Amino acid sequence: MLEPPPTLHTDPADQAGSRALLGGSWSAAALAAAWPALDAALSVPSCGQGGWDLRAVTRLDHTGAQLLWNRWGRQWPAQVLLSPGQQAMLERVARFSTPALPPPRRRLWPLFLQLGERLWRLWDHALGLLALTGQLWLDLLTLLRHPRRGPWRDVSGHLYRIGATALPITALVGFMIGTVLAYLMSRQLRQFGADAFIVHILGVGLIRELGPMLAAILIAGRSGSAITAQIGVMRVTEELDAMRVMGIAQGYRLVLPRALACALAMPLISVWTTLAALLGGMLAADATLGVTPAYFFSTLPRTVAVGTLWLACAKSVVFGGLIALVGCHFGLRVKPNTESLGQGTTASVVTSITVVLLVDALFAVVFRNVGL
Hints:
The chain is of the alpha/beta class.
C-alpha cells in the first residue's frame, strides 16, 4: 500500500504568526520522494511561528522526527499538538540525538605533513625512474655485446603496435591541426599583405615544434597507457612474480623491447604527423590565400633548414624513450588489484605528457640557435 505524501500547510492563527499543519506520511521513503518542495516550505522563517499541529500525520518515523527536531532548533516549540505516539517518538529522538560536530579547523602542521608526503612520493618515483634508466643502459650494453640473443621478436611486435597502428590517428590529428593553423594565420597575415610568409610560419612551427609534440602526446596517451596496462596486468595475474622465480630479467624482456620500439617509432611518427599537418596547411593556404602548392613546395626547402629536421627527429627519439620508461615505471609499480591498475595507468599518461612538455622546453632553450 502506497503511503500518502507528506504535506505542510500554514493556517493563519493569532497575532503570534501562522500555524504549521502537517499531514500525510513523514517517513524516510515518503520524505525522499517529496523532499524539494518540503524543504522549501520548512525553510520559510514564518513557518510554525503560531505553533505546530501534527495530529493529521499518519506515520512518523525517526527520520521525520529528526527532521522536525532539527527544524525546531533542538528544543520543544511553545505550541505543539500531537498524539501520544508522536510525542514518544519525538522524545526518543530528543534524548538520543546530539548536535552536529563543528567542522575541523585546518592547521598548518597537517598541511605540512601532506606536503612532505607528496614530496617523498615524488622523490621515490624519481629514484625509481633513475634506477630503471640505469638498468636500461646496462641492458643496451648487454644487447650490443650479444645482439643475436636480443629480444628482437618483441621489439618488432611493439614497433608494429606503437608505430604502424598509430599512423591513421596521427595523420588525422596532424592534418586537422595544420588546416586550422593555416586558416587562422591567413586571417591575420592578409591584413598586412604578408600572405607568402605563411609557408615560413607553417614550416618552422610544424616541423620544429608542433609535429613532434603532437606525435609525442598522442603516443603518450595511446601507447604509454597501453604499456602501463600490459605490465600492470602481468602484476595482477602474478606473471611478474613467475618471471622472477624463473630467473628472467624483467628489464631485458619487458623494458628494453618497449623502449627500443618506442624510440625507433617516434621519429617516423613525428615525420608522418608533420607531413600530414603540412598537407592540411598547404590546402588551407591555397583555399584562403591563393598560395599555390607549387609555391609551397618551392619555398619550404629554402625556409626550413636541415638542422631543424634533425633536431625534430632527435627530440622524437628522446620523447619515445621517456614515454616508454615512464609507462614501464608505473606498470612495474602497480599493486595486485584493479584499483591500483587504473590509478597507475592514469598517472602514467599524465606524467608522460608532463615530461614531454618539460623536455621540449629544455630542447627549445638549449638548441635555440639550431636551424633558425
